[in-house]
Amino acid sequence: MKFAILKNETDDTLINWEIACRKNSIAYEIIDLTRADWLSHFESDNFNMLLACPPGRESLFKQLYDERIFILEKELGYFIYPSQKEISIHENKRFLSFWLEAHRIRHPQTWVFYDKNEALNFAKASKLPLVGKFNIGSSGKGVKVLMRRKELTDYIEAAFSEGLRQNWGPNLKMGGYIERLLKIIKNPARIINRIRVYQKVYHELQKGFVILQEYIPHDFEWRVVKIGNSYFGHQKVKQGDKASGTKGIKYVPPPMDLLNYVDRICSQHNLNSMAIDLFENGDSEYLINEMQCIFGHVQQYICSVHGKPGRFRLKNGEWIFEEGLFNSNLSFDLRLENALAIAKTRINP
Fold first, then answer.
1. CA–CA separation, 320 and 313 (whole Å)
2. From the CA atom positions of the chain, what is the Rg in Å?
């Protein structure tokens, strides 16, 4: 089988795919999707699988990557992991809100305005607080809880005039200061890379539209992860006014009804690599807040029961917990295992 890794504008996830391929003695080619000659690589080579590295910092490269992934999967018929659908949902909060609404999947009510007057008229009578969101951006940096009416109207005015920017620098609510400092000491080049990332995020101007979302009172969010037939879950604990991006993790096993809910959505929509963040709304309902096909995690595991890392798998209609470390290499080893299993069914249906 011939593999290609589809590089984005950075080397972040590219490295993890390379590590996974080397562990499995898989030969691969790296194709930079940001180059003008990107499509020429597919004219002479017939790849069995394309491993994607969807970006999540700049709208410019997000749009570029999504368009080229669409051509490769939908027009040329390549097998891409994660899929074009999963990549379209990834780090695109506008699209996610439309996608959830179209499929009648429960989520906090979301409004996307492209007209300033329409947004300001909405703001006059809307229930507060509301949540303002950046279309692209992770770790909760682009999320702002708007408590007062003037704060909301100022936010809208800014979105349609000078534009909105995220704060420069690290997300201080993520904690782990000692660990992060040690990483910098061990690898000084890391700080240069991080500064470049902070600059990219700061210069990502959101202008001409605004995303507002219903505020759901919560003490935590559930994060449930599906990679192939493996499921993981924990609570993201609220710090300040939100749980997203705090890295406050409580390893509480997800309820079985929550696993069933996520499994049903992923099965219906053929989602293989997905992290889903959900609120509980007080009426025994789960509301999807975020969905990402590629995501980070601070520990070597993302699920633990009674202090033992592991995963959940559905067997004969029951959820079974299996002990073990299944999230090595930021879960890219498990993704490659899943991608290979899917590829085999495509070759030998």
1. 5
2. 20
Phi first, then psi, for residue 100 (nearest 5°) are: -65, -40
Residue range 69-86, pLDDT digits in tens: 999 999 999 999 999 999
Residue type, 149: R
Q: Is the pLDDT of residue 243 over 60?
A: no
∠151-152-157 over CA atoms, to 5°?
95
Give the Cα separation of 81 and 340 in Å (integer): 10
d(CA 201, CA 166): 7
Average pLDDT of the chain, as a whole number: 89
- The 10s digit of each residue's pLDDT in 311-349 is 999 999 999 999 999 999 999 999 999 999 999 887 665
DSSP-derived secondary structure for 109-127: -EEEES-HHHHHHHHHH--
Convert 140-199 into a string of H (helix), E (strand) and C (coil). Answer: CCCEEEECCHHHHHHHHHHHCCCCECCCCCCCHHHCCHHHHHHHHHHCCHHHHHHHHHHH
Average of pLDDT values for 209-220?
94
Does 127 score more than 70 pLDDT?
yes
Q: For residue range 135-150, what is the model confidence (pLDDT) as tens digits?
A: 987 655 689 999 999 9
CA–CA separation, 173 and 242 (whole Å): 10
CA 112 to chain centre: 20
Would residue 284 be called left, alpha or beta, if left means φ above 0 and alpha means ψ between -120 and 50 degrees?
left
In the chain, pLDDT over 70 holds for what percent of residues? 85
**Domains of the chain, start order:** 3-81 (3.40.50), 109-166+205-215 (3.30.1490.20), 167-203 (no CATH), 220-335 (3.30.470)
Structure tokens at 143: 């999320």
